[in-house]
Amino acid sequence: MIELWNGILVGLALSILVGPILFSIIQRSIEQGVKAGLWVAFGIWISDVLFIVGIMFGVTHISKLIESPLFEPVLGVLGGFVLVGIGAGMFISKPAEKMEEEDEGIESLSSQWRLWLEGFLLNTINPFSVIFWTGLITTRSVNTDLFSTNSYLFFGAVLGTIIFTDSLKVFLAEKIRTRLKPHHILQMRKFSGAILFIFGIVMMIRVTLI
Length: 210
Description:
- The chain is an all-alpha fold.
- The protein has one domain (about 1-10, about 20-210).
- Helices cover about 85% and strands about 0% of the residues.
- Helix 3 packs across helix 7 (about 110-125) and helix 4 packs across helix 8.
């Protein structure tokens, strides 16, 4: 039972972090509705699952890779470019005049795929995500069997909490959406785009100059 609570606490700690992932989930939910927000979140969840599975099976090799002096600069620059691209696109483009049209617009497979890919890339090409999961799993591997029932319970609780809190953010953003007018949506889109752009620039500066 203690592993369950430990996992929930870790998941809650992750859920309150303010970063590009949070802004992306909220913005897509407000602008395009629950389905869009959930597709972005789904990409994030799949990325986290792949991190956990991949690191659990290759913890030694991945730990050595992270220790390389080139790891964080290379991944940070790539992640920065992704954030800058998404942020610039969000800032320049405009949402549909009628918000109802956006719900219909994500019914196509290509639209769903783009939303999923946005969430997946935001989480995957983020040095923090790689370092966090590697550090968490490596630490547990010292004192606990990674393939034991306790570990499965712990990581299941972490993922379950992340999924629950991300879904809650999506549905709360949807409540806000019904109270907003088109010009409010446009202003929030530009604000979120600018924030993502700044996150990308700061990430690239941090990993290359600091």
